[in-house]
Amino acid sequence: MDDLSVHHQLALVDLPGHGGSSDIRADLIEGATLLGDAGGPAGYLGYSMGARFCLHLALARPDLVHHLVLVSGTAGIDGADERAERRRADVALAERLDPVGGGAPEDTVAEFVDRWVTNPMFGDVPAAANGLDERKRNTAGGLATSLRMAGTGTQVPLWDRIGELAMPVLVVTGARDARFTAIGRRMVESIGTNARHVEIGDADHSPHLQRPHRVASVVHAFLSTPDPD
């Protein structure tokens, strides 16, 4: 497999289809393997789709994941019909960017990104924190492949497996994001006493962008705890 792009010593990893990894095509399982190869033994933090990659890695290679931080993540959509509907929606978005079989796309990357960041679920993220310039450097093919291969609808539900996680787990959600806050509580209950849930006040689906100092403080304190024996 190709290598995921890793930036500097902080191991800021570009996931498949994004940034320096825009040419990599991988689903959640394959991408988790690549993520572990790139990061090695470490504490792993992922947001939204990144949280789902990190969760897959933690279940497949718990020896690599010393601490696990899941920001606005999920263990999957329970119902088959709802998963199928989400997959159809993601494929439709992908088609707008990079139609299968060729043809003119309906959206440029810039148009796609501009519409994406105005989704009400993200709330009042400051414009300076949205990273629009960086997001718009993505490629249509990369984003489309990510939607098709690693969208939420492609994820096999992991609710019956997350109790296997033995490393310390921190679940972070925005308090105004009712859906993912409920998911976060359920995840912690399913994982057990090694997991905790922190709700970030006055934040929605992207608490790390809306309340970065609060999230950084919570994550720093969590990662500073000793590894389990």
Characterise this structure.
The chain is an alpha/beta fold and 229 residues long. It has two domains: 41-76 and 156-223, Alpha/Beta hydrolase fold, catalytic domain (Rossmann fold, 3-Layer(aba) Sandwich); 80-150, no CATH class. 41% of the residues lie in helices and 14% in strands. The protein is built from nine helices and six strands; from the N terminus they run ββαβαβααααβαβαα. The protein has helices at 28-39, 49-60, 80-97, 109-116, 132-135, 140-150, 178-191, 207-210, 212-223; strands at 5-7, 12-14, 42-47, 65-71, 169-174, 195-200. The strands form two sheets. The chain has a four-stranded parallel beta sheet, with helices on both faces. The chain has a two-stranded antiparallel ribbon with strand order 1-2. Strand 3 (42-47), helix 2 (49-60) and strand 4 form a beta-alpha-beta unit. Helix 1 (28-39) packs across helix 2 and helix 3 runs antiparallel to helix 6. The longest helix is centred in the middle third of the chain and has 18 residues, at 80-97. The protein is globular and about 55 Å long. The mean pLDDT is 93.
Secondary structure elements and pairings:
Layout: E1 5-7, E2 12-14, H1 28-39, E3 42-47, H2 49-60, E4 65-71, H3 80-97, H4 109-116, H5 132-135, H6 140-150, E5 169-174, H7 178-191, E6 195-200, H8 207-210, H9 212-223
Parallel strand pairs: 3-4, 4-5, 5-6
Antiparallel strand pairs: 1-2
Helix pairs in contact: 1-2, 3-6
